[in-house]
Amino acid sequence: MKLAFGLALCACLTGAVLWAQSDDFAEYQGWMKSNAATVADISKNLTAKDGAAAHTGVRKLQENLAMVMAYWQSRNVTDGVRFALDATYGVAQVDVLISQSKFDDAAAALKTAQGSCANCHMAHRDKAPDGSFKIKIK
Ligand code: HEC
Questions:
Q1: If you measure from the C-alpha of residue 111 to the centroid of ligand 1, how many angstroms do you get, rounded to a whole number?
Q2: In whole angstroms, what is the distance from residue 24 CA to residue 18 CA?
Q3: How far is the CA of 53 from the centre of ligand 1 (A)?
Q4: Listed residue (120, 130, 138, 113) closest to 42, CA to CA
Q5: Which pTM was predicted?
Q6: Distance 6 CA to ligand 1 centre (A)
Q7: E strand or H helix that includes residue 135
Q8: Residue 64 near residue 39, CB atoms below 8 Å
Q9: What value, to the nearest 5°, has the Cα angle with vertex 135 and ends 111 and 62?
Q10: Which among 71, 111, 81, 72 has a CA at the least distance from the CA of 94?
């Protein structure tokens, strides 16, 4: 009886942990999918020289990156935090150039900022055999 209860409790806790992880991952993946869509959007708006729309995109990226940074911070992964900060700094430069209507320079700066996306992906993104992505903490 005691054993059965213990097993049930155990299964329940395991379930909770798995649930928490997948929940967490879905949220993280949401920021990443939004990052990709937003970068494409900013790029398009820079070509169209629509500064207001490009600025809105930059704000969205900054919001996403703040969440991403907090994610790595709460796990004490220093380089993850740094990549998120680098990307944040990079898109802040894009914003400055947008405010000066230097749209070509802003597009170049956006490419540079994407280097920080790539740096984090190299360190912390795993590609599963089925082509989906996973988070690599260490
Ligand atoms: C601090 C680390 C970090 C930064 C910075 C970062 N990423 Fe990611 N990214 C990840 C990790 C880890 C994954 C794997 C988990 C996932 O798929 O969400 C990922 C996955 C992705 C994916 C695949 C999403 C999917 O699962 O289909 C895209 C697209 C993406 N990132 C775009 C970006 C863009 C664009 C930027 C920069 C604006 C960026 N990322 C910045 C860590 C980062």
A1: 15
A2: 10
A3: 23
A4: 113
A5: 0.87
A6: 39
A7: strand 133-135
A8: no
A9: 40
A10: 111
Query: Which of the listed ranges 3-7, 9-13, 28-32 does the model predict with the highest average pLDDT?
Result: 28-32
SS3 category, 98 = helix
133 Cα nearest atom in ligand 1: 17
Domain ranges of the chain: 50-138
The pLDDT value given to residue 6: 58
pLDDT value of position 23: 74
Structure token digits, residue 110: 């956006």
**What pLDDT does residue 121 have?**
98
The protein residue with its alpha carbon nearest to ligand 1, atom 36, reads 117
Cα distance between the two ends of the chain = 41
Which residue minimizes the CA distance to atom 8 of ligand 1?
32
For 120-138, the pLDDT digits (tens) are 999 999 999 999 999 999 7
Distance from the alpha carbon of residue 25 to the mean position of ligand 1, in angstroms: 11
Task: Give residue-wise pLDDT tens across range 43-77.
Answer: 999 999 999 999 999 999 999 999 999 999 999 99
Instruction: Report how far residue 84's alpha carbon sits from residue 80's, in angstroms, rounded to the nearest whole number.
Output: 6
34, 127, 133: which to mutate for ligand 1, most atoms within 8 A of CB? Answer: 133
